[in-house]
């Protein structure tokens, strides 16, 4: 890994490819075809991109039962315990409707309502990602979403991985479809004869899935436009190069575009970590992917002071931030921008990916400056509640009408005036 001084680096931000014009045009065409032709178009794209013909993409109860039987008991135990931890964390995020009253009879409040339906995209094909199912489904369930729809690209045999189906079954997901790519996003957005549309789509995918989500936003809500995974480690002289190297590589193996960065106040630790990264790379099963990420998108920055290192971290606004310092709890209050913060050498980032409880769907590419991890609130809506008494209207009506006229909205003002002039009940009486 390259070692550079922060003083020699004018900007730490990197630019992420948001797709070529050709890719965007292709995705736009897929969305339009599925919108117009529904299931027929979905089937054609599944055959074209996944090389498999699926007449009915719905996963059956029989498939779910077969998958459950195929998964070993040890794996089941791990999945179940992870689900328990993650559900417990998200239960603590639950918000409640609230109402407040004033002496003049005003009643104000906020009503929390879950979305009716959410679509969860789970990457698939040649790999299985049960953690993606857990992290997307649980906050929706805790929020109270009644209908959760899962989509995932099929394998060449036309099925989904056993571990994927077992995890979905364990979570109680009933509606699962063997479709992926932009066509799955389109089906969830516009609906087909087979799949009813949803209100929000969450979950990671390749560039075509990301572009599709970006293009359908507004018709449905989405979680975020996720870029390649990234980790930043902030370390002082107390850090261990072998631990840090292992954590950097744990992100580098995700994708050749992944970013793994060390910001340290110790030149000695920087050099030790660079050597460790090189050595540990040699035995990684995904060596080529990790090597590309380390070569093209990863750096070790040496800071003169801890304050300078913290400022660099806040500029990077990383998806994952690890604090390998002597007193990490003294630093955490100074971190303004990070998706998830891992404190101390025992809190390796994979703990958050799979087991601890917080959500691993995190803002990437600097968007932690203004956004948060996927959470229960993302699957709810808020409605304001306003009830004015006659007393409150008479005390405040003149001010409200005056404010409306400040903006030259006379009809707004008159809607108040007529009530002030005619009074309660407008002279009507109720018959017996």
TrEMBL record:
Listed Gene3D superfamilies: 1.20.5.1300, Nitrogenase molybdenum iron protein domain
Keyword annotations: Amino-acid biosynthesis, Histidine biosynthesis, Metal-binding, NAD, Oxidoreductase, Zinc
Enzyme's top EC category: oxidoreductase
Catalytic residues (positions): 319-320
Cofactor: Zn(2+)
Residues that coordinate or bind NAD(+): 121, 183, 206
GO cellular component: cytosol
GO biological process, one term: L-histidine biosynthetic process
Residues at which Zn(2+) binds: 251, 254, 353, 412
GO MF terms held by the record: histidinol dehydrogenase activity; NAD binding; zinc ion binding
Amino acids binding substrate: 229, 251, 254, 320, 353, 407, 412
Cofactor note text: Binds 1 zinc ion per subunit.
Catalytic activity annotation: L-histidinol + 2 NAD(+) + H2O = L-histidine + 2 NADH + 3 H(+)
EC number: 1.1.1.23
Region (Disordered): 1-20
Pathway: Amino-acid biosynthesis; L-histidine biosynthesis; L-histidine from 5-phospho-alpha-D-ribose 1-diphosphate: step 9/9
Family: Belongs to the histidinol dehydrogenase family.
PANTHER family: HISTIDINE BIOSYNTHESIS TRIFUNCTIONAL PROTEIN (PTHR21256:SF2), HISTIDINOL DEHYDROGENASE HDH (PTHR21256)
HAMAP family xref list: HisD
Function comment: Catalyzes the sequential NAD-dependent oxidations of L-histidinol to L-histidinaldehyde and then to L-histidine.
The protein, known as: Histidinol dehydrogenase
Species in which this protein is naturally found: Alkalicoccus halolimnae
